[in-house]
């Protein structure tokens, strides 16, 4: 759990250090702007922008019932962030699994990617797709009710 927050916390701490230096250097406006930028980077790289993660086995069970894809992801992954942002509200229709929280999920991703933990890996109808185009994923979502 803590591993997911390491990168965001580093962004916050670095932002605070840079802002403090700028404030003491006489540039409070620049300090505020840079601190906001660092906080934005921390937010984008935090688990907060992703739908709540579930375990790999639960995601596979739910996917078998409702036909929705399973997305294996990890915090800080720029490709996962790109997928999440480009899917917009449609992202809530997928089952998201954080591989840093679930060893079974990490093992499933390694099995699908020749031993590598390459994410995002989207599993649709039992077939893994590594780093698919967000438009491709959106086309394969079941119609909303």
Description:
This protein is an alpha+beta fold and 145 residues long. The chain has two domains: 2-48; 50-139, Glutaredoxin. Helices cover 50% and strands 11% of the residues. It has six helices and four strands; from the N terminus they run αααβαβαββα. The protein has helices spanning 6-24, 28-44, 56-66, 78-87, 103-112, 134-139; strands at residues 70-73, 95-98, 121-124, 127-130. Strands 2-1-3-4 form a four-stranded mixed sheet. The two termini are 34 Å apart.
Query: Averaged pLDDT, please?
Result: 89
- The helix/strand series, from N terminus to C terminus, equals HHHEHEHEEH
Unreliable residue runs: none
Helix count, DSSP H or I runs of 4 or more residues: 6
Question: In brief, what are we looking at here?
Answer:
The chain has 145 residues and is of the alpha+beta class. The protein has helices spanning 6-24, 28-44, 56-66, 78-87, 103-112, 134-139; strands at 70-73, 95-98, 121-124, 127-130. The chain is 50% helix and 11% strand.
Give the secondary structure arrangement, pairings included:
Blueprint: H1 6-24, H2 28-44, H3 56-66, E1 70-73, H4 78-87, E2 95-98, H5 103-112, E3 121-124, E4 127-130, H6 134-139
Parallel strand pairs: 1-2
Antiparallel strand pairs: 1-3, 3-4
């Amino acid at each position: 759990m803590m591993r997911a927050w390491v990168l965001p916390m580093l962004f916050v701490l670095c932002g605070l250090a840079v802002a403090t230096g700028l404030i003491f250097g006489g540039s409070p406006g620049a300090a505020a702007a840079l601190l906001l930028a660092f906080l934005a980077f921390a937010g984008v790289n935090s688990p907060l922008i992703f739908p709540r993660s579930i375990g790999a086995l639960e995601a596979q069970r739910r996917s078998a019932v409702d036909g929705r894809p399973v997305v294996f992801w990890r915090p800080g992954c720029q490709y996962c962030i790109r997928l999440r942002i480009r899917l917009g509200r449609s992202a809530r229709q997928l089952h998201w699994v954080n591989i840093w929280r679930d060893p079974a999920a990490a093992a499933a991703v390694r099995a699908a990617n020749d031993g590598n933990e390459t994410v995002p890996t989207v599993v649709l109808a039992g077939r893994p797709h590594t780093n698919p185009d967000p438009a491709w994923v959106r086309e394969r979502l079941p119609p909303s009710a």
